[in-house]
Amino acid sequence: STCLLWMRRDLRLHDHPALHRARAEFDVVVPVFVLDDALLHGRYASSPRARFLFGCLRSLDEQLRERGSGLVLRRGAPEHELPKLAEDVGARAVLWTSDVSPYALRRDAAVTAALNERGVRAVPNTGTYARDVSKVRKADGDAFTVFTPYWKTWERLAAREVVEAPRALAPLPAGLDRGELPGAGVQLPAPVCEPGEPAAREALRRWLDGPVDRYADRHDTLAGGTSILSPYLRWGCLSARECEVRARGRATPGADAWVRQLAWRDFYASVLLEHPENVRREFQPKFRSLAWHDDADALDAWKRGETGFPIVDAGMRQLAATGWMHNRARMVVGSFLTKDLHLDWRAGERHFASLLLDGEPAQNNGNWQWIASTGVDPAPYFRRIFNPMIQQQKFDPDGAYVRRWVPELAAVPANRLAEPWTMTEAEQREARCAIGLDYPAPIVDHADERKRAMDRYREASASV
Ligand code: FAD
Q1: What are the structural domains of the chain?
Q2: 40: burial class by Cβ within 10 Å (0-12, 13-18, 19+)?
Q3: Is the pLDDT assigned to residue 356 strictly greater than 80?
Q4: Which of 367, 368, 369, 386 to mutate to test the pocket of ligand 1 (most atoms within 8 A of CB)?
């Protein structure tokens, strides 16, 4: 008997529950990826991410071929393409790894209905997150909205065993049209990582071979300290569950702290699953009336990394060049957008989604609402107004990050690097960096904007 394995963001062979099950229950497994125009060109489209995806698909195809099979590509709406392919190969079931975004849920419901109409079984499986996120719940069955209690329950919940990658697979049905990848999107100047499972496994091996042990102390260091595995987790080139199990094997405080971050990823997935409306509006009703400014020039300066605040500009330029940004920088640029420029967090979320290789609705939305203080996070808004100068001094004390991404500031003396506008004329000449000419003067005054942000948030809170 034959089944389809509909692959989406589970582009791996190791620790793949749906693949494991497909092989156990069927003689022939036909792996298929559907290039869905709604995703490639819709609201969440991103050329750099599409290019990364195509790289992952090429690599997956190679691995499948090495094992005697191959990847089938189709282009169009999954609810049309999958029933057609199932009929062509005589498949009795379609297996996949389930997902949580509102789009994915709608799409999967449409596919299920279309398959069932033709007597084909639709079989969703776990495998995108370290736990089955629909199952991590309070004793009374309600979903969590606060991370720490979620984390405690998450840790205690029995999780599935890691499963091996298959050594060999049955060949694809003879004569089947395999389809082709279209031309890829925009290439980044210096992508942060190579696409595909083999590159992902090598990066994980290197990370777990030592650096992870220093994670607890170094994760906030802007010029390094984190795994940069998020694009692989986003596309499922790595299984979060396998990452967790292997990290736990280190039994170091660093590895434990890192596993906790994997739980954050699960947490935001469960928040979106429970509150799909978050993709459009603030989780906290009182902040739905927040007054956002409308300033295209300020938004542009932020996007280009020309705000005059070195740490903000470094983060935005790292994103544009590599498709990735350090988490600390994401928080700093997010705070700056929403609380110094007073621009709508949704504009930031959209810009991130258009560039991040790891961009995905659950994490992007959860974190943007966190930094905008509109989300599930119980901390009051004034705790999340970041001072860019202090952040830079704390998390990039030697200036390595800023100097790398903002080369105009390469020769600025260390004691001026967080506030280059305070350089004397002589210092500017010496550093070959004229403020307002080689590098922008700050577009706002942080102390003033902080006060305005406090007023805006206070007003919105009081209006309820
Ligand atoms: P590590 O520090 O090595 O952490 C390991 C893994 O844990 C990450 O790969 C990631 O999967 C998960 N993780 C770590 N921190 C978080 C977090 N705060 N929330 C959720 N998961 C986390 N992450 C995304 O994967 N996609 C996004 O679209 C995204 N958008 C963000 C937007 C903003 C405004 C902010 C502040 C954060 C966002 N993050 C997002 C979370 C975080 O910045 C990235 O996951 C992290 O920087 C990835 O780098 P890393 O792999 O080196 O992480």
Answers
A1: 2-128 (3.40.50.620), 129-161+196-274 (1.25.40.80), 285-462 (1.10.579.10)
A2: middle
A3: yes
A4: 367
